[in-house]
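Quick log. Single chain, no ligands specified.
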Amino acid sequence: MATMAELARTAKLPDDEVAHLQALTADWGMLSDFCFADLLLYAKVDGGEGDRDRFVVLGQVRPTTSQTLYREDLVGRVIDEDERPFVARAWRLGEIVEVESEVTSPGERARLQCIPVTHRGRQIAILTRESAPAVGRRPGELERVYVQTFDRFARMIVTGEFPFEATEPLTPEAPRVGDGVMVLDEGGRVEYASPNAVTALHRMGMYSNSEGMRFDELGIDAPGIDRALATRLPVSEELEAPEVIVAFRCLPLLDRHRVTGAVLLVRDVSELRRRDRLLVTMDATIREVHHRVKNNLQTISSLLRLQARREPPGSGRTALEEAERRIRSIALIHEILSRETGDSVDLNEIVVQLVRVAEEGVFSSDVAVRFRVHGDGGILPADVATPLGVVLTELLTNAAEHAFPPGWSQPEGAHVQVKLVNSGTELLVRVHDNGIGWPPDFDIASTPSLGLSIARSLVVTQLNGTLETSNDHGAVSELRIPIAG
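-> predicted structure:
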């Protein structure tokens, strides 16, 4: 489906006008709920026959407070003046047009309110409110107040005062019409409070009648309301009482730049914040666990290093040094995890740390080996990153220690390249050196090398991947493991 920006190109709207319409549709779920009706956004396009105008539907939203009039999706449909004559009429007059007419798509009559959308003094679109006719039913107070509130926003749309020029992005936790509504006058006094809004105030400990009262007179400190009325811009804030947190979103109501009141959307977010705090606590606990594991592993690494120094040169010392290096690589991963939120880690950060470990191993060598890292490995969960870190340690160490024997030389010097490619479903890690390469009869499945055997075992049993070797002007080790998309 085409986006609004793509559809707006057919109407030849400039970027600032498209941005204005996008801001309108970002907040029009609230408008749809206030008027209990479907809202459609039309932009004029070229190509009509004679004097007939043609319009494209840029957007469509259905109410959550009432039944929708349309089951089908109308976005992208081009209609002419014969199908929506009153849209064309509102476009030409530049004023709100209200009628009851037969709607072509569902084949039934509907109440239409056609509202010109203005941006910086120029009419750019038509917003229609479309609902089934009310027959034999007298609306209650809540419905009357909500529809009157929508009408005030509609007049702001015509004058270009809504959507607001500057507004904060809406979050999924932002209060909605169904959560609770309060209507305030220009002085911040409550004119109307919906039942859900009254319930939210009760949970904050305020049981007196709120109508005709300011929030400070009710004992509630809500500076955002005064700020919204003073700046003529929406303000969101959260008010905390014992055991209760209530989110407010205050939208000023304007009439030709004069504040005439405000709409306050209210939502009890106590449970949401309790869960947020619980997640923060759990995250801090997990990071503390990683920190302690890292400390313990570093202690073991230090003990192995001390023991290795006491051993005479030979296989015993080499085994202890290799064990110390493997434990240190795991400790590095836990150190990174102890600094991160969540239980995942950036693979590139791991590789940089492991390269430093490998560089330390060849620091005293006669051959200076340069390591380079290319590509982006992405974010990996800890249960993948930990065995992968050990595998990379073995591959890097093997390249640094065995690819460049005494007497080896190349004009460009010795180097080991690590290439990372994350497709979203598979991770490719390629370690390529320019040394002597693998022996002609080398088979990693039957290698006597303990390090490479450990690497292959981890890849197959814990990472469910493959590890293959080849020669290409040096030794190549290519690791592929599946990852969650």
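The first strand starts at residue 38 and ends at 45.
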